[in-house]
């Protein structure tokens, strides 16, 4: 029988963090298109679990096709939490997610169900497991955001970026000269990555961290297969009406200034509608940038203390699910 490739995993997996008497928590992280949702669903069906999404774009209402939200059929298989509940005109911060996710975990556990935290937004997952602390000098890498902002500064001018900063972080905007490209871009970069204004990041969240009896995994597959799955997913989304969805969102008043429209693909298609370019070139850029995003996700999760499980065939995927089910918090 095929087995998934596992990094340094004992036969009976123990919790990644042990806190006696604390709620059990299964965490399935990993890059986009790696099969996390299907794995979580199979385990939820087996262990009477409910899934708490850790995806920074699936939180938004109206964004359906391009966020790969669980389908109606998938939602019948197990309950999902923290999807489809934030107005896309409104910002949503990591601190918001920490509060909402911890409340959802407590609710699921309180009803005697298994909480499964599942998603690819590493900062969301870290905020639940470790708490929040974002001093300005220790921000995670955000090169893609920075590069895009630099391109926008060149195309549209710094004044427009400074005006955008004034809307989301007036305190910093008042301190930064309209011609100070480096500081304007840095402040916007921090805001887009965390949902918090740069002026607030010197504050450290000193709230007591909640401990979980947690088993944490990164589910992935070989790079060639992952990239193939990413490109197929982009094609499927476009065939399912992704561009038409962006048109509808634009008609609802959403623009590139809204946090919800900064997601890969939504941003690209919004610019395409604005500039009337070559759609095939736009699609190629979406695929390229999604591959780069997946690579950054993997880089992020390598810094975390998690068990890595890799699969490349349906049989290995099934083995990966069995392996993640075989943890002491689930009773073996």
Could you characterize the architecture of this molecule?
There is one protein chain. The chain has 332 residues and is α/β, with parallel strands linked by helices. It has helices at 36-47, 72-77, 94-110, 122-130, 143-156, 158-168, 170-175, 181-194, 223-239, 242-251, 266-275, 279-302, 314-325, and strands at 5-6, 24-29, 49-53, 80-81, 114-119, 213-220, 307-310. Strands 1-7-6-2-5-3-4 form a seven-stranded mixed beta sheet, with helices on both faces. Mean pLDDT is 86; it is low at 8-15, 134-139 and 202-207.
Distance between the termini: 20 Å
Q: How much beta, percentage-wise?
A: 5-15%
The helix tally amounts to 13
- Please compute the radius of gyration using only Cα atoms: 20 Å
> Order of helices and strands, N to C?
EEHEHEHEHHHHHEHHHHEH
Record the SSE blueprint:
Layout: E1 5-6, E2 24-29, H1 36-47, E3 49-53, H2 72-77, E4 80-81, H3 94-110, E5 114-119, H4 122-130, H5 143-156, H6 158-168, H7 170-175, H8 181-194, E6 213-220, H9 223-239, H10 242-251, H11 266-275, H12 279-302, E7 307-310, H13 314-325
Parallel strand pairs: 2-5, 2-6, 3-4, 3-5, 6-7
Antiparallel strand pairs: 1-7
Please give a quick description of this structure.
The chain has 332 residues and is an alpha/beta fold.
Question: Could you name the key traits of this structure?
Answer:
332 residues; alpha/beta; 13 helices; 7 strands
């Amino acid at each position: 029988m095929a087995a998934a490739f596992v990094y340094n995993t004992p036969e009976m997996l123990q919790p990644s963090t042990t806190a006696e008497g604390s709620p059990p928590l299964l965490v399935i992280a990993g890059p986009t298109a790696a099969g996390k949702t299907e794995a979580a669903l199979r385990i939820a069906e087996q262990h009477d679990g409910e899934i708490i999404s850790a995806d920074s774009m699936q939180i938004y209402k109206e964004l359906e096709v391009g966020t790969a939200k669980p389908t109606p059929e998938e939602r019948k298989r197990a309950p999902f939490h923290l999807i489809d509940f934030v107005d896309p005109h409104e910002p949503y911060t990591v601190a918001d997610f920490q509060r909402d996710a911890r409340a959802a975990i407590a609710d699921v556990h309180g009803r005697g169900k298994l909480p499964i935290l599942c998603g690819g937004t590493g900062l969301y997952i870290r905020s639940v497991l470790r708490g929040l602390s974002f001093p300005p000098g220790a921000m995670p890498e955000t090169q893609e955001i920075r590069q895009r902002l630099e391109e926008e500064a060149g195309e549209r001018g710094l004044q427009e970026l400074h005006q955008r900063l004034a809307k989301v972080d007036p305190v910093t905007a008042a301190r930064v000269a309209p011609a100070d490209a480096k500081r304007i871009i840095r402040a916007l970069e921090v805001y887009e990555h965390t949902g918090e204004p740069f002026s607030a990041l010197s504050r450290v969240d000193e709230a007591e961290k909640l401990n979980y009896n947690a088993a944490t995994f990164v589910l992935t597959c070989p790079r060639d297969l992952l990239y193939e799955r990413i490109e197929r997913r982009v094609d499927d989304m476009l065939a399912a009406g992704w561009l038409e969805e962006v048109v509808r969102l634009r008609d609802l008043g959403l623009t590139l200034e809204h946090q919800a429209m900064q997601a890969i693909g939504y941003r690209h298609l919004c610019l395409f509608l604005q500039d009337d370019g070559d759609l095939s070139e736009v699609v190629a850029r979406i695929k390229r940038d999604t591959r780069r995003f997946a690579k950054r996700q993997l880089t992020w999760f390598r810094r975390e203390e998690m068990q890595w499980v890799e699969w490349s065939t349906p049989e290995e995927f099934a083995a990966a699910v069995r392996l993640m089910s075989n943890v002491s918090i689930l009773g073996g």
